[in-house]
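Many introductory courses stop at the sequence. We go one step further.
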Amino acid sequence: MTGNARRNEGTALKPEMFESIQVNLSAVERRAGTLTTRRSVKKEYQAAWLVKALTCIDLTTLAGDDTPGRVHRLAMKARKPLREDIVEALGLADEPPKVGAVCVYPTMVAPAVKALRGSGIPVASVATGFPAGLTPLPQRLAEIRYAVEEGAEEIDIVITRSHVLLGEWQALYDEVKAMREACGHAHLKAILGTGDLKTLRNVYKASMVAMMAGADFIKTSTGKEDVNATLPVSLTMIRALRDYGEWTGEKVGFKPAGGLKTAKDSLAWLILIKEELGNAWLDPHLFRIGASSMLADIERQLEHFVTGRYASASRHALA
């Protein structure tokens, strides 16, 4: 998301843009349910889509036992996500694919930056009391600044879900705006924790407020909620993103995360993006997938495409 990626400048808080919104749950579920049945992607086209998905992955480790060594191995996989023989067979040797970013905890940012130096792959850091986001605001802002000082170019913040549940839109706006300012040059990805927000109306409203406050991306989940990324929730967020873009002219990115594990999952969300936002969003500057094990399955599917055989999953270890 670095380089020529635009920033969302945000707007003043305008509740009239979202307060009266109605979301038809059955219509959303029906639309989401037809996405993967109306379009079939096979053979070389599927391989191309899977390579595209690979380049949009935020390769993530957010475990309590993370170490610099684990982060280093993850970074090496990020640099070379596909085996060289698969890259050669796909005709990509001149420009081998790499993932969109590596996402870690703030204390692991420095090892990630060191391991990725010269690769062009940005380091993303969760922050702001991830995953609950319930530490006091000064500490959350300090955590952002720490991660940026360590070299993070993207910050995945978590919002205070109670602001949404109680309709405290000014408080939510002020919180995200303060986080945006703390990010400095780093891009801000706002995690809504949609599994905690209860209704799709709340998801739409939280999306709009986060974008008004300057979020460069809106993201579904931490991966720690009982319900994480789903197609109906993602569709709702994308409709909010589209409405915000039509109103302001800004392009805000989208990131589903949590529970996305397979190559088939990646195709479903690529189809959603293509049909709702168009080809311009099929780019790591505007679309990311938060995942870890998904990469191994994509590599396995691409090996099957080039060899006609499925390898054991153990041949595609993450790192």
